[in-house]
Give the backbone structure.
Amino acid sequence: MSKKTKNKSVNVNNLDKNEKSKTTKDSSKFKIVFGVFAKIISYLFVIKALFTIYCIYLVYVSLTNVPDLPKVDVNVRWGVDNNTHDTRIRPYRVIFSDAMESEIRALFEDYRLMERKIKSFKNTAWTYGVHSDAFAQFFSHWIFKYKFRERVKFLNKYDHFLTNIQGLDIHFVRVKPKADKNVKVVPLLLLHGWPGSVREFYEAIPLLTTPRPDYDFVFEVIAPSLPGFVFSEAPTRPGLDTYEMAIIMRNLMRRLGYTQYYIQGGDFGHMIGSHIATIFPSEVLGFHTNFPVNTSKLSLLTWLLGGLLWPSYFGNGIEDRMYPLKDKMEFYLEETGYSHLQSTKPDTIGIVLTDSPVALGSYILDRFMIFTNHTNKFEDEGGIDKYYDFDKLLDNIMLYWVSGSITTSLRIYKETFAGSRLNNLAQVPTSVPTWALRLKYELFQHPDYMLRWKYTNLLGSTNLDYGGHFAAFERPKDFSDDVFKAVKAFRNFK
Amino acid sequence: MGGLFGLVITSCLTIELLASQNTEPAYKLDPNAWWGPECTKYHNDTSIRPFEIVFHDKMIADLRYRLNNHRKPVPPLEGIGFEYGFNSNILDGWLRFWAEEYPFKEREIFLNKYPQYVTNIQGLDIHFIKYRQKAYAHQEIVPLLILHGWPGSVREFYETIPHLTSVNKSRDFAVEVIAPTLPGFGYSDAAVRPGLGMHEIAVVFSNLMKRLGYKKYYVQGGDWGAFIGSSIATSFPNEVLGYHTNLGLSLTQKALSLTLFGSLFPSPVVDPALADRTDLLSGHIRDAMITEFGYMHIQATKPDTLGIAMTDSPGGLLAYFLQLISTGTRSYFLNLEDGGIDKYYTRDQLLDNIMMYWAPKSITTSFRIYAESLNRRTLALGISEIPTPVPTITIHASDEIAYQSPLLLRTKFTNLLYTTNIDTGGHFLALEMPILFANDVLNAIAEFRNWHAKGGHGNGELLPNNNG
């Protein structure tokens, strides 16, 4: 165990090293030591003042220092087999097999017939988590109304593929736009997060791939599954954090023939997109994010101090979403339990969620409803009937279930938040043109000036008075409209 | 991994703490709170009914079916022990053991070896063991209320009870053990409305002891049992003859300040040899708190979400519990592929404990103790701030999850008679070291009796440290 070295001019530990302290003499020893310390400090005012200035300087340098871009290895291998270099792009289909359906129905029955299911307290809405009554409704739909055969057809309405990048089979959906000679086709990489998937983009994709008046371009969409999620292979050794995922996604685009492209990201997709824009700025034509945050220490400090000193000034137009500080702190404390658990023990909770569809459903449903609108916590139904129909929510859950990928998807939390490189790129700015979309109930939001410390060419932002964390999933039209608007600005920016 | 996450969590907690500074408690403890259905309030049944644990055939069949048909877990990453949580390589072995080798009927008989009862306190049927051995004529029978925690149960005490209740001619007392199951755990009823936190549970247990005819008694507690025991000693000081704990913690603001100060300047605050057990700033303790307390965070905020999940998967429940028991026993078990789980416990012991959650389906309601206790309402009761003059004795195992020096403990326990530091042992001390545990408790009771015989006035003067 290593002790931090202290830069203090007086080290109290050295002072009393020669005195053997007995616990029975604690309080008097304490007084002597403290007294001596206080006396010496009071005599050293000048030294104190200089020392303070030096500390402030160190803090300033630490907060504003722009580290060099770390060396990037674009050929890191992640798979089991280090020798295969398969560059084929192989067609893929989502399959809901009969065996899978029988198994899950048997598991449904086990739960349904269980004696003594615990009931949640009355009149507490979702303040203890998913309410048993609301869950029963959701579960009932899953058993009796969710049509596996129809849903898998729906999931296959777009073309799916697998291709091997750095040893891992990466799954993606690729949708070409409807042909129109007058309209330029530009590639758009859509990056999802947790507990999302490519399913989040299904309603937005037709809107993104259809030409629209006032726009001389249209998108070809590439929506991959992050490594370890759904049908993308997971690594077999630790270390695949968002930084490495950025490299994989960039290599994916190169595999598909794109040396320049636009990126859209939310949740982890924002972090990965941001890393790509920082590490490979010449390849990214523009970056659109619906999770606009700056994760640097300076931003965190500004947010905290701003909240204490002058929220309306530091909030710069979105202070109602950043403050009051106390409310925000309470909110984060209350809502980050899942993240705390997944960032530290992903494999433990993974075992639970792999073993039971009810477990998986309950866990994911909880996050979808609270991240869409945290006031759902005070609704008896938790808002489950308000934003998404059950089939949509279940499609997403089924993708995790049939692929057995929940455990490997959870590991992104540990790799990222418990990894050593969480904030390496936070203080490295990128000049890639950027656009921020802020929906009202998004969990973290930073104002434009703060974003510009990182995204120096933030061309603009859109603030919506509704909507939550899953922008594409909940508001496909607003989402698509804003992506078009942003890319138009990117194209005009030279 | 201090980092951003740790900083944010620490800031949140600090601001929460500072924001909750009230001089007047916003809430008060209701000694007659009713936790059962309203309609039962007026048919108050005060009978004490014998109770037997039964493992029904149907339950066993369903459990074995689930275990034998569990979904294959994803293998762990290369070179990993328990750093990512329960290592799934050992899951199949454990589940096969549980399904095929764990002798349900034999264990049921074993679990019933001590006389058990149920009695209704404040609307809740509380399950408890009550047991003593035949004493000599000259010996006084002293009641000892012994309290378990989470994810424990009364099963933790089965190996230590014979020693606790052993009759020794040279002692002037013999112990009668009363080991209740916490409300919402095991075979004790769960509250049907919110509000049953650790201080409210303390009231329930004080009433339990009254129901059993004890005006005064000793209290022993670990984990939640330690907090509940401390609460009983604070709220009912005239009932508690002495409080022994293997997780001595003062939650006063003074203790918190001293801890922070002690992180910078250890020697006035804590014995230098034990300084690293309390140092919050060096990274070691802070990191351990962050890496190990995820379960606490989610159970305190979303108990029902997790409960739905855990109720449906016995394999998941086992992985969840055994991961905690692993790291709670020895911190170095984190790096072992098998989590070191078989080192100090038998599989039957640990499965007995898990059965106390699975069989009565009390997982969800057991999680709720976190949500009901780690909240502003509990903080606002201010009971943790109030010192207690009840004579207290603590034992500190080397791998216990938290440590406070006598200086800190005395901010809460003004008559801390002595502390014992051992260089072995973990969080589940009674289960892991039943004889050492029992001896320490018996010595403590002897010391409490001496203290009372001498007039029972303490001035906080600490007896010489016991280092065993």
Q: What stands out?
A: Chain B touches chain A through 91 residues (CB under 8 Å). The CA atoms of residues 39 and 123 of chain B lie 10 Å apart. The mean pLDDT of chain B is 91.
